[in-house]
UniProtKB/TrEMBL annotation:
Top-level division of the source organism's lineage: Bacteria
Protein name as annotated: DUF4402 domain-containing protein
Pfam families for this protein: DUF4402 (PF14352)
Keywords: Signal
Source organism per UniProt: Massilia norwichensis
Signal sequence, start to end: 1-29
Length: 163
């Protein structure tokens, strides 16, 4: 049996979007700013005959099937700060758009694994204070029977917009 390690959500692959807010004459547009502080990391595991690994936004890690989780201090959700471009307060809600199930794959030199069931905490952001809001992102990765060992990486588009 060989150990695997899977990481996701590299900051270079993030897509950010913003929309204009109604403003008084002479005021500038405010944008949503997304700053990554850690990547989604599924940790080390043994594949055996396959199953799934889930990392929740709170950091809980679980597996199904014959996937055996190994100690992985780095495993955990992706964490971002959602703020505004001018550092001010926004009374606008923020819409979070996550990828469709299985549209993102973690890849290595010899294999890939699909991601699904993306979830955030908080699920909704009703306003953005001056200090920003911490946003955690978790997901489930499907591990195939006989999954080739290696370091798996990928990018996950995460889109945030003012509503």
């Amino acid at each position: 049996m060989f150990a695997h390690r899977a990481f996701a959500l590299r900051t270079g692959g993030l897509a950010m979007a913003a929309c204009l807010l109604p403003a008084a004459p002479g005021a500038s547009a405010q944008q949503v700013v997304l700053t990554a502080s850690r990547s989604l990391d599924f940790g080390r595991f043994i594949a055996r005959s396959g199953g799934t690994i889930t990392v929740s936004p709170s950091g809980a890690r679980s597996s199904t099937g014959a996937v055996i989780l190994l100690n992985s201090s780095s495993a955990g959700p992706a964490v971002f700060n959602v703020g505004t471009s001018n550092g001010g307060v926004s009374n606008k809600a923020v819409a979070i758009t996550l990828p469709a199930n299985s549209s993102i794959r973690m890849t290595s030199a010899t294999g890939s694994m699909p991601l699904s069931a993306f979830v955030t905490s908080p699920a909704t952001i009703l306003m953005v204070p001056a200090s920003g809001v911490t946003l955690s992102v978790g997901a489930t990765m499907t591990v195939a029977a006989g999954q080739p060992r290696g370091n798996y990486t990928g990018s996950i588009p995460l889109i945030v917009n003012f509503q």
